[in-house]
Design brief:
The complex is a heterodimer. The longest helix of chain A has 27 residues. Among the domains of chain A are: 92 residues; 125 residues, no CATH class. Chain A starts with 5 loop residues before the first helix and ends with a helix. Chain A is mainly α. By secondary structure, chain B is of the alpha+beta class. Helix content of chain B is 24%, strand content 30%. Chain B contains two helices and six strands. In chain B, a hairpin with a 5-residue loop joins strand 3 and strand 4. Chain B is flat. Classes of the chains: A mainly alpha, B alpha+beta. Chains A and B meet through helix 6, helix 8, helix 9, helix 13 and helix 15 of A and strand 2 of B.
Chain lengths: 421, 132
């Protein structure tokens, strides 16, 4: 069977939330509408390569999806009719038939309502990511299952349970009111951030068969930014993802090994993504409503714009982490703050901060504190101590790529100690 | 996060289950099948397999020229891997909960076996650029 070319596939995926939005608004039944759109997407992927792109792809998808919905509704009515006499006087077709294409503004409102629904805080992050990829991202269940390396049946169940939860808890298909908007937008951004992070794992596996989750997260965040252009944190999130993703090609070596930031070949960084990220940030920061995503993006931008690791503007990065610390209570921010402190004031100052963090229950027993301490001990010249801590960190990480990196680093230090360097 | 739940049994000779009365055997098998269905329906099951018994197991090492040298039947073994589940869950606590459920699979006379299930995290987590 012929496959869709990449451009058409992107077009198809971009249409998915628009078509689903229209059907949701008209039928008030997210679960059924979502199934119908998924079937229409699968039908398009099968028919378009053979029959060519239809003249009006969105109308084609709408027609196929609403026909599926009509069939479903007709069967449901038939079922009910057998049980009771009262049947709607409006024929099933007219309940769901879709007229002329809706205006762009309505389409955008619908897409935003969809995002808020799929990223509702009552869903677990894993469920929200899967549902967002399907309903907003236009990915098939099989593609999402491949991204998470689970069987398709398992992923289908997870998505169907998420939809059930939405139905049971009566989460409405609408843009949240002004009082809830900021918190709900925060939940959407958090899901997109986690989706992007999940993609880091995918890029360490066989990227040929795994769905590019980081790319999907960038695409959906781009959509979100287009829908709410006046939200500086959304621009900040998109900037952060672009500025981080820009280093993708350089962050793994030929054998898939992790290459740390200071050793990456900066010529392989994606300059176009960096310019776009920096431009977004330049538009967001002057609005005077800073937030964690804008600040993290600003740190990423300082790394990306440094001509070499040695020329990194660490005082500026330290200042950004000082602001971030005041905005959020996040142990990862504290760790990064300690590193920045070490880069500016010397390793002893950073190590002193780590000592204060040792009692933080959220970091206890994790590999990150050990790895950062090892890094600072190495900078302070305590190679034996650093080596032992790198090994302990390696034993505690749940990432194969990271373990291999930490072990190789520990071995190099042990060799250096042994040879008296 | 993914976890592998490993079910170990005493390693000397065939599985004990082979000598159970039919009724107990059927109850145990039904439990295991229902358990797998439940995990699938919850969207948590990644993989599950049962392994053939210790009496059929071989240990293989490379001999001269890389030829396989096999060794088999291990009367001295204390524990043997009888089967495993790989689950994707939202927390370690959920993995422990699933393991406890598997542990309580019915044995002789329907009495819970409360067998030991080893829970290990699968190293599929994303690496982080912690140096930043």
């Amino acid at each position: 069977m012929a496959a869709l070319d990449a451009a058409t596939q992107q077009q198809l995926r971009a249409l998915a939330p628009e078509v689903l939005g229209i059907l949701c608004r008209r039928t008030k039944d997210f679960a059924a509408a979502e199934d119908a759109v998924q079937e229409a997407l699968v039908a398009a992927a099968q028919q378009w390569p053979a029959e060519g792109l239809p003249a009006h792809p969105r109308a084609w998808l709408l027609q196929v999806a609403s026909r599926r919905l009509t069939d479903e509704a007709r069967m449901a009515i038939a079922r009910r009719a057998r049980e009771q006499i009262v049947v709607s006087l409006v024929p099933a077709e007219e309940q769901v038939v879709v007229g002329a294409d809706d205006g762009a503004e309505v389409l955008d409102d619908d897409s935003l309502a969809l995002l808020f629904m799929c990223c509702h805080p009552s869903l677990s992050p894993a469920s929200a990511i899967a549902l967002t990829l399907r309903a907003v991202g236009g990915l098939t269940t099989a593609e999402i299952a491949r991204a998470f390396l689970v069987p398709e049946a398992t992923m289908a169940q997870r998505i169907s349970r998420a939809k059930q939860l939405i139905r049971d808890s009566g989460i409405p298909f609408e843009r949240p009111g002004a009082d809830a908007f900021t918190a709900r937008l925060g939940a959407v951004m958090h899901v997109l951030y986690l989706m992007f992070s999940e993609g880091y794992a995918a890029s360490s596996g066989d990227s040929l068969v795994r769905t590019d989750l980081s790319g999907e997260a960038v695409r959906v965040t781009r959509l979100l930014h287009r829908l709410v252009p006046g939200e500086p944190e959304v621009a900040g999130l998109l900037a952060l993802l672009l500025l981080t993703d820009a280093r993708r090609a350089a962050r793994t070596g030929p054998a898939g090994e992790l290459v740390p930031l200071d050793q990456q070949d900066r010529a392989r960084w994606d300059r176009q993504a960096i310019s776009e990220g920096v431009a977004l940030l330049d538009g967001a920061l002057p609005q005077g409503r800073p937030g964690p995503y804008q600040l993290q993006a600003a740190v990423a931008a300082l790394h990306d714009e440094a001509p070499s690791a040695a020329e990194t503007d660490w005082p500026q990065i330290l200042a950004l982490y000082e602001v971030l610390r005041n905005l959020s209570d996040n142990p990862m921010v504290e760790l990064n703050h300690a590193i920045a402190t070490a880069m500016v004031q010397g390793p002893a100052a950073g190590l002193a901060l780590l000592d204060q963090l040792a009692s933080d229950a959220r970091l206890a027993g994790t590999h990150r504190l050990d790895a950062v301490r090892a890094h600072l001990l190495e900078r302070a010249g305590d190679l034996a101590g650093a080596s032992a801590l790198y090994r302990r960190a390696a034993g505690r990480t749940a990432s194969t790529v990271e373990r291999d990196y930490l072990l190789a680093h520990a071995a190099r230090l042990t060799d250096a100690v042994g040879s008296g360097v | 996060m993914k976890y592998m739940l490993m079910m170990n049994t005493p390693g000397n000779g065939p599985y004990q289950i082979a000598s159970w009365p039919r009724e107990d055997l059927v109850r145990h098998i039904q439990f295991m099948k229902a358990f797998a269905r439940k995990l699938t329906a919850a969207g948590e099951l990644v993989a599950a397999e049962g392994l053939s018994g210790p009496d059929q197991a071989k240990r293989v090492r490379a001999g001269n020229g890389g030829k396989p040298v096999t060794d088999g039947v291990f009367p001295e073994s204390k524990e043997f891997l009888a089967g495993y589940w790989i689950v994707q869950v939202d927390s370690p606590e959920r993995a422990y909960q699933i393991a406890a459920e598997a542990s309580a699979a019915p044995g002789k006379g329907g009495v819970p076996l409360n067998m030991s299930i080893e829970v290990r995290e699968v190293m599929s987590e994303a690496p982080r650029e912690w140096q930043e």
